[in-house]
Amino acid sequence: MNKTTLKAVLVLIALAVLLAVPKYVESPYALHMMILLFLSVTMGQSWNILGGYAGQHSVGHAAYFGVGAYTTMMLMHAKQIAPWYGVWIGIALVVVVALAIGSICFRLRGPYFVLASIAVAEILRLSAINLTTLTNGAEGILATELPAFKIGETVVTDFSTKVPFYYIGLFLIVLTIAITYLVQHSKLGYFFQAIREDQDAAHSLGISISLYKNIALVISAVLTSLAGSFYGIYVGFVDPPTVLGLDVSVQIMLICIIGGMGTLWGPMLGSLVLVPLSEALRSNMITEALVKVGMVNAESKVGIFLKENLSHAHVLLYGILVVLVILFMPDGLMGFVKKLALRRKREAI
Amino acid sequence: MAILEIKNVSKFFGGLAANSDVSFSVEEGSIMGLIGPNGAGKTTLFNCITGYYPPSKGEIFFDGRRMNGLEPDKVCMLGMVRTWQKVRPLAKLSVVDNVMVGALARTWSLKTAREMALEQLKVVRMEHRADFLAGGLPIGERKKLEVARALATQPKILLLDEVMGGLNPAESEEIIQLILDIKKRGLTQMVIEHDMKAIMRISDRIVVLNSGEKLTEGSPQEVVNNPDVISAYLGESHA
Known about the structure:
The complex is a heterodimer. Chain A has a domain at 27-264. Chain A has 17 helices and 4 strands. Chain A has helices spanning 3-24, 28-53, 62-79, 83-105, 110-130, 132-135, 163-184, 187-197, 199-204, 209-235, 240-244, 246-259, 266-282, 285-292, 301-309, 314-328, 332-348; strands at 141-142, 149-151, 154-157, 237-238. In chain A, a hairpin with a 2-residue loop joins strand 2 and strand 3. Chain B folds into 2 domains: 1-79 and 156-239, Rossmann fold; 87-154. In chain B, 36% of the residues lie in helices and 26% in strands. Chain B is built from 9 helices and 10 strands. In chain B, the strands form 2 sheets. In chain B, strands 6-7-8-3-9-10 form a 6-stranded mixed sheet, sandwiched between helices. In chain B, strand 1 and strand 2 (16-27) form a beta hairpin. The longest helix of chain B is centred in the C-terminal third of the chain and has 16 residues, at 169-184. The relative contact order of chain B is 0.18. Chains A and B meet through helix 8 and helix 9 of A and helix 2 and helix 3 of B.
């Protein structure tokens, strides 16, 4: 069996296992964690196409995430349009937004592009806060009642459990990974990477820089908006900071930086680190664990301090993580794994 | 027949005239040498011709078509491609992938592009390096990679910017043979070079630039005996 078929078989086995999970796992919390993981992989992989392959490090992906989430939620809340129709309107809107942003920001290179991308996302966040008639402002939109999904007259699901969300999430990661694979193995992937490595050289080789940057942006933005729509209907609530905030953009990027930019499995690895970590911090699991092993007394000053503050420390921890990755694994976890594999190969010879 | 015509091209950067009123034409299938002391405006002229700078004045015709204002990618698609004085390998891509990027200008199929790329790697005798990372190559092979990548776009004219710069004599000799091989296949070339011996051997005609202006033009023999050229390179006392 050669390497490609082996990989394909492994992927199919993993997919079969993931498809079977809800049959055997009943804990809503476990399913919830899996859904968060799927969401994270989808977001990271979407950014990866623009940031990892085409090398345009957008720190404004919250714009696309938020537009997707808000469109779907607004249509459902105000017009009673079911999300599986609203999603398409969200995608159409995101394409328009992406092309508008692209035509302005892609005139800039490097750090200036980064600043412009942040600015655009902030404009959208502030608009969402202030256009109260449209977005309900800072209060956000609450819409937890999902209409049942029917094909003809048969009800496929009424969304009363987490299982349908699990399968939607699974579908999203399969979709984004498949699209990334197709991009990587096509003319697009080569052109994106050429632009990343050297824009002027790429230009001289017949690559229209603005065309291909915009193609990368549109693919990336559409997938990000799908993730946003999914987040909206899953959580049932959107407000400006949670879907349009700067930390959303940063988190999307971190998944790739930690996992490995411009690799197919990098966002998966990054999510496997970040999602459990942020969950452990949020639910104060780390403090509890420290107390359990006896390193910290729960009643002592240190214990109380940790309990009160560690759950808010995820941003600090992200910062430390990024520093560590940049120092020790500049190509992310995926680069680190590849390097280890290469070293083992050399030692074998 | 002239494939490339440069008519009264000037390029100003603020008050500085990097090129002023430069005119010449390049015959199809020939090798045109472009020489001049440092700062004479050779690379600026390349940038004007290939669409990186719009010329401030004058016109450029390629294959009978006016090129002013065309973006570099359009210029490449029309059949004019350049290499870079400071080499620009796509460092994290393999050697064959680098050349494939060039070939993909002409095809959508990765399989065809790969075949085209391997063919060009054979031309520059680098097929054994196909799977190496471009960023890890020594300078001599980076220069040859630039040429292979440019050739893969299937140009009608190839503009080489100091492709022998920084090479040892053996490597330079290899590049000279490569340029002559390419000429045999009927491809027009324009070559910027500092190595006078090399440029004398390969060029059919030579244009000399000095301080942005065209000093003279002629066969290698005519140019090398021209007192203006000698004084531009060596100072008045030698002329």
